[in-house]
Amino acid sequence: MQSVNRLPPPLLFLMSLWDAWQSLTREGEGLLRGQHGLSLREFIVLSYVGGGDYQPSALAEALGVPRYDISRTLAGLQAAELLSRSPDPADARRSHLQLTEAGEVRRAAAEATVLKFVAGRLQALESSPELPDALSLSRALFSVAGSSESLSPHLPPKENLK
Question: Which of 15, 37, 60, 130 has a Cα-to-Cα distance from 54 of 20 to 30 A?
Answer without folding.
Answer: 37
